[in-house]
Amino acid sequence: MALLDEANQVRTEEMLLNVGPQHPSTHGVFRLLVKISGETILDADPVIGYLHRGTEKLAEDLQYTQIIPYTDRLDYLAAMLNNYAFCHTVEEALDIQVPERAEYLRVILMEMQRIASHLLFIGTYLLDLGAMSPFLYVFQERERIVQLFNEISGARMTYNFMRIGGVKYDAPPGWLDKVRAFVPFMREKIKMYDSLITGNEIFLDRTRGVGVYDAETALAYGMSGINLRSTGFDWDLRRKKPYSIYDRFDFAVPLGQHGDCFDRYYLHLLEMGESLKIVEQALEQIPDTGPVLGKVPRLIRIPAGEYYSGIEGARGELGFFIVSDGKDKPYRLKIRKPSFVNLQLLPQLLRGQNIANLIAILGAVDIVLGEVDA
Amino acid sequence: MSEEQPQQSAAPAKAARGQEGGGKAAAGAAPAAGRAAANKQPPAPDPRVLAAKEQAERLHQAVADRFGPEAVLESGAAHHKPMLRIARERWLDAVNYLRTHPDWRLNYVECMAGTDYEDRIEVVLFVQSTELGHFVCLKTQTPRDEAWLPSLVSVYPGVNWEEREIYDLLGVDFRGHPDLRRIMLDDDFVGHPLRKDYSVWAETERPLVDGQRP
Question: Which residue stretches of chain A have pLDDT < 70?
């Protein structure tokens, strides 16, 4: 058998490679069927659903307040944001006024959650690319955030803290000061990560110009969050459709230029800094006292109709669509899952790439399988 | 409320709109809530709803002018967003038309969801224009027993997986979809769980294959 083909290239055969579902770099149970020829990817077929729990179906038998803990388990790295997205949709539907102090507490928690989630992205992404220690580093800072969340909500991961009309508990004494102390600490750490990672030549080689797409493609594929902003398209729901009290804060929306994996990494880093700015301003403006739960009927019934609202989650637009028939349970609940939508472009990005880039591209999409599969 | 003078002339119009809204609720989302809505005095119309209805009217015009009046089944408001219900035969054309129409340019899909209403299956598309700022809700519907809709993948590639999910969980056949397979559930799963008549006990009712439950 000839080793070389007509074009004098080493003869290769098509091969089917199964990545996952149990593979550390797939961030959960995600399976990717890759067709390769030599080291070039010809096609990829993502297989999802291994973590499908039927949250949307379960919600049809739950009262609105009972759904909140289920939202924790969607994107379990950003549970506060999920909590908020759901409560926000119900509040919009009922025109519920949320007390000032609760709004500020929510914003502080949401932005801290965004930082925790982005930190973990940086850690796992570097781990995917072969750098072991950043993963251990980021857990130190994340631990501080998780400790703070533990103090206010009593849980480290699935908080179940937001309520329709406010939050469950007021901040314990001294908690806000601890957050205040966390801001400069985290700022230093961001600088440290920037100097450790951003200029690293191996990292740049692995990520620059890899997994590139333009804004038009991203919009056509309905992408959101950093995956969309990395192309330079200015789209942040905190700015475009301000919800909660985000119109009161001064922060920038960092944008990418090339739409490659490096931009997506770097935006995560920059967004952490912007989130810190928001936390800092919220800490200045938060009223010292006041209720943290608004006037909400004991049994929440949403008038018949359809309600959709989305927020800027850690991974993109996180939305809830509620169809109500006037009862205390939703007739239909649909979750607009950012990582589910963002993941769709993956086969197209992988085609023609070297197999070594597979993990770099997949990691930069920043998926959480709990959310993809819901 | 502050306009004392034109109130007399405006009142019947407002009442008519309120009636219309009540009627829509009864026909649309909630068969059970219809009676309650008819008995209750319609509350003062929300300006956001009125603005949405007005925009929906313009959408209605745009689509009806192009595809004929039978292409649009209904226009109104979905909460504070303009809503347009399009016949399924015209679904793909009308959505594509609104995507490219210079007045609308609905280029960015936010959310697509299917709902089983027991007499029909409805698919909702929340879509917006990133340039012009419109945010509208487009709907279409299909009978349950012969559930098919034209696929929008050729227009918005991003609804590929959403349509697969609706196919998987609600059993709507999207004609023209490039890769219509189950996405969340097993390939050999029987039934569509988000249909209202789906029984969670259906598993035990599955036929035996080679003496085993598939």
Answer: 1-3
